[in-house]
Amino acid sequence: MQYPEPIAKLIDSYMKLPGIGSKTATRLAFYTIDMPEDDVTDFSKSLIAAKKDLHYCSVCGNITENDPCDICRDQSRDQNSVIVVEQPKDVMALDKMDDYHGLYHVLHGVLSPMEGKGPDDINIKTLIQRLQKQPIKEVIIATNATPEGEATAMYISRLIKPAGIKVTRLAHGLSVGSDIEYADEMTLLKAVEGRQEM
Ligand SMILES: [Zn+2]
């Protein structure tokens, strides 16, 4: 027996989400059908709003409703340092720390020859432009401690060091292969405090 088309479509949609197989998708689809109509309407509206109202900051690449984003516009932040991260999620994680009040730059990925991802495929060009325009003195590279994250850190370091900008790398109390987004505040704080010059 086949599911009625609206359910089949809903299952298909859920299966497009990461980590969701057909079993979970089916469970979620049936759960959705049982939800109050208002909740489903709210849910669908927030999906559309998230897609429509959010975009990437033209300065730092973070996800934002306003362009430039709130962090880039905040003049009370330390304008001399930038933490370079892989994903917008990493900004959220790092900005929970009370002890860092600088800026961020989101690469949207890492260099990965295996996946055919080169320097033009991640947000490096705008970083270079920022370094020319803004009074940035230190770039703290906080890509994850994976082989691709390390290679990306090296690449960026070689690219910007000749301009006389200090380049540091987060200390890895973060264990190898660990993701910044899952690290607790204390670990992140130690990683930033213990950063080392590249
Ligand atoms: Zn921004």
From TrEMBL:
Keywords from the named record: DNA damage, DNA recombination, DNA repair, Metal-binding, Zinc, Zinc-finger
Protein name per the record: Recombination protein RecR
Listed Pfam families: RecR_C (PF21175), RecR_HhH (PF21176), RecR_ZnF (PF02132), Toprim_4 (PF13662)
Residue ranges of the TM segments: none
Function noted in UniProt: May play a role in DNA repair. It seems to be involved in an RecBC-independent recombinational process of DNA repair. It may act with RecF and RecO.
UniProt record similarity statement: Belongs to the RecR family.
C4-type zinc finger segments: 57-72
